[in-house]
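Prompt: Have a read of the protein record below and flag anything odd:
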Amino acid sequence: MTILITGANGQLGNEMRILSAENKQHTFLFSDVFVPEDSLVTIHPLDITDAASVSAFVKSHGVDLIVNCAAYTNVDKAEQDEATALKINADAVANLGRSGARVIHVSTDYVFSGDEHLPCSEDDPVAPRTAYGRTKNAGEQALLSVLPDAIIFRTAWLYSEFGTNFVKTMIRLGQTKEEIGVVYDQIGTPTYALDLARAIFAAINDDAWHPGIYHYTNEGVCSWFDFTVAIHEVYNMFIAHGMKHGEPITCRVRPILSEEYQYLTPRPHYSVLNKAKVKQTFAISIPYWRDSLIACMRNM
């Protein structure tokens, strides 16, 4: 197949680019709105909010499948500019669905209310409470309305060795602060973007096409506080074994309530996703979140 990866400069897009080298049976094209001068692969400038541009690109390059890794992900800014978030997270997704190619799209746990106390399944009712969640839910609905056989992966707490993310921020703060407060009343599962990319490739390379919505995060659950403590522990483990240079992190991590952090936009208190469907459909095993954290930090 000829496969287009949109949002190629993002965390997931970069991991898809890495794994494309292991999938030489396909031809890959990469696109983004921004093309860095030092990119090691060709990245095509493509504005997916422009329906005509998307249609022309897919037709001229003979694209069979689009993996949409592009999204407006700034939760707080989306609250202030929902129109722009909707354009990228919903209108653009519909453009991809109308392009004539199959589509694998990436969505989020924010489509749920965050008040659940059991892992959310794919058929549980959605109830987004933020502009980001509303626009991502709109994107799911828009895609399925124009392309019912699309595949959607919902994920949460995504991080990688690329870009700006929670893991890198906690390392930086740990190196520069004596103490940081991190919320302990928000529960979820970190997701290493490389693991999600592998799951997407499992869907691509399956003998059959399995349309529908799937949930994917790493295994296990933790709070942001637990995740931060683990990040510092793993970082110090690498320092102690001479696998990284620098001083160990001695910053104290203090557990705080969400109300103490003064969020501009409410965050889900519980965003654990049930992954039984994706494991059964694509016959994959999912790594435990702490093991994946170690793997990611080894790759940084």
Q: What stands out?
A: The two ends are 31 Å apart (CA to CA).
